[in-house]
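Can't paste images in this forum, so I'm doing it all in text. The chain is below; anyone willing to post the predicted structure tokens underneath?
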Amino acid sequence: MYRQEYDLTYDDLNPTFLFICNLKRTETEDNYHCHEHLEISVVTKGYGTYYIDGKEYPLKAGDLVILNPGTCHQSLVTCPQYCTTEYYIGFTDINIRNLPPNTLPLPNGNVVLSMKDGMRQEVFHLCSAMGKEFHTCRPGRYFMLKAYLIQLILLLLRDQQETIEESDGCIFESPNKKYVVKQMIRYFNEHYHEKISLDQIAKNMYLSTFYLSKIFKAETGDTPINYLIELRMEKARDLMESSPDLSIQAIASMVGYEDAYHFSKLFKKHFGAAPSKYRAAGNS
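Text version of the structure:
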């Protein structure tokens, strides 16, 4: 069986970043249209439908849509009370072997990918980072956005390659490392509201804390602590938006922090505003 390889060079993967936006889709798009550039849609909340090349695709949180140039599409709102929140990312100038220019591969021809837990959290993390960077005026803003975009593209290519290898019965280059990191990510997602000790996780896995941190960063690009903080802050923001009557202390406790002051410092560092001001701005 032929196996697609992605041994990319600088000329293959030197994308031009165009835009990113985070949109809550409350109305059906007016036009059935296509683009000359590539566009990726990442659904972070809710349910919806895409009409793509004459076919309807149901969407849910955790789905990713690949819209290659010339792909006709329209976002439909079928249930306004459960409408989607999505990141839209536009870019161009990539070249993947055996594909037309500016085209991403579609696994088994599917334009909609249902991301697994680990992949979903990594993609959400990158989208959040890109969204925050897009609204800053710091030096090197464009290049930081481009760096995040390259990571996102490579995550998609690697995930597709690994899916092929799994189905072929092939062995990963470092299966134990990947398994350990996936177990950690699953644990973080299931226990983020509890007190988590990296030392205890390492002990339970019969590994050193240093080694655990090293392989986690090698696989995800982030340290376990930063990854957990990012996850907790996103959960805190969701709670703040969905349950406006909750106190800051209660939200802090629900995402794993006994100290509301420490939680507030982390929240401000992450979102640029203290929880109380962030909430006030959202209600104004």
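Residues 67 and 154 are 17 Å apart (CA to CA). The longest helix spans residues 141-168.
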